[in-house]
Fold these 2 entries.
Entry 1:
Amino acid sequence: MRTVLVTGGTSTLGRSICKAFVEIGCEVVCTYAHHKEKAENLQKELGPLLHIEELDVLSPSSVETFFSRLDTLDVLVNNSGVFTLSDQEDLNIEEWEKVFNTNVRGLFLVTQQAIPLLKRSSKGCIVNIASINALHPGFGMTAHYDASKGAVVSYTKSLAAELGPKIRVNAVAPGLLDAPYLHEQGNPVKEMFVQRAVLKQLVSPDSVASCVVFLSTNPAITGEVITVDCGYLVG
Ligand SMILES: NC(=O)c1ccc[n+]([C@@H]2O[C@H](COP(=O)([O-])OP(=O)(O)OC[C@H]3O[C@@H](n4cnc5c(N)ncnc54)[C@H](OP(=O)(O)O)[C@@H]3O)[C@@H](O)[C@H]2O)c1
């Protein structure tokens, strides 16, 4: 039975990823940073294969404490991330650091601790959650977020070269995820995305989760970034 770690496992996407791995019989460690109640609810929903733990990727000591209690790992899904909107002219250093420290430094801290465990696995792999913003920057007010996800993409490729053949490393770049807040009447972001996307819909978190599971099982893929965006980039 594989053990899977999903950081930010209670997020819109994290929940779907946890569910997808539980459904195929994996032990899943779902971490939360601030919302323990959400994690407890997810545990009730998904049952005994789901374990919940606190992990704040901004804190090196939180990451170390978490890994001191983990003795086996086959799949790491770096899903935690933050998104903010701001013109670069108005962006303060704290916001820049929060985005980079969560999306890039935090991913590095978790990955570094996970590598020794993944090396001991016969199926060790990492799936990083990037974004189409890394591949198609310029949505407006997101340059700092786009740059952080661009770093996730290049980190993924370099790490794949460094950690092979023992550990495979890939990324998924989702488009706009279907989330309740987007269903308010006439939401402009939703309208913009759906209008351009070839498939005329938002990206379901479950469709991204199935791609994460696929990357975790296909032994021939490493250093790859798969876009799951309902055809937004080609629209
Ligand atoms: N939403 C989209 O349309 C979209 C599109 C492309 C890519 N993505 C990426 O997909 C991933 C998930 O996005 P989402 O929209 O599902 O997330 P979300 O609902 O906004 O939730 C963010 C997640 O990150 C966790 N997190 C925040 N700060 C953290 C920290 N310091 N340490 C550890 N975890 C932390 C949160 O945990 P707590 O709740 O416990 O704080 C939460 O689980 C992110 O990497 C995001 O950039 C999202």
Entry 2:
Amino acid sequence: MSPRTRRLSALALAAVPFAAWAWPVAEPALIRLPFFDECDSIDAIPMRQHVNYNVDIQPIWSARCANCHVEPEGGNAAADLFLDPPNSWFFLYNEPSSQDPELIRVVPNRPWQSLLFTKLNCDVVDIGVRMPRDRQPIPIAEQALVHDWILAGAPETDDDTIFRARFELRG
Ligand code: HEC
């Protein structure tokens, strides 16, 4: 190896750690897909393209998840999932399950990868039981609303256009 080539290769080698540091590498998310079975069909419900979290979704939690996740008895939300306004969104969006951190509560754009939706829609769920626990399943129209909200990117507000740009059609 000539001194010139050696100098050049030394330079190239020195650049490697810098390139590794500067190059944005997309870390594969450490998630596993939730298992589910015996799910309700939401096909009959017309699709909603604009779902406003505070107007459409929060009232479902407030009405149907009370005592356990909303104003929880003794202040301890079941599975550390607080669904009280105004912070419930932060306990859902890309948040790992407190029971199995490889499962994600809400995976934006992916209802069937979201533990939340599968636990509202299916009798057989990956972890624990169908929600709301010990109560009737929530109405199909509300299940579809949760589905469509996640599919639209699970925006925190209605005018979250960054997320809505990635919208795909259901089915
Ligand atoms: C009667 C109490 C009760 C009600 C009502 C209830 N839950 Fe739960 N929830 C629990 C318990 C207990 C767990 C932990 C065991 C399990 O996953 O089944 C849980 C777990 C969950 C989880 C998994 C959280 C995690 O991090 O693993 C989600 C999501 C969830 N509930 C959503 C809801 C939603 C949405 C509602 C209302 C539609 C609701 N639950 C109503 C008691 C309840």
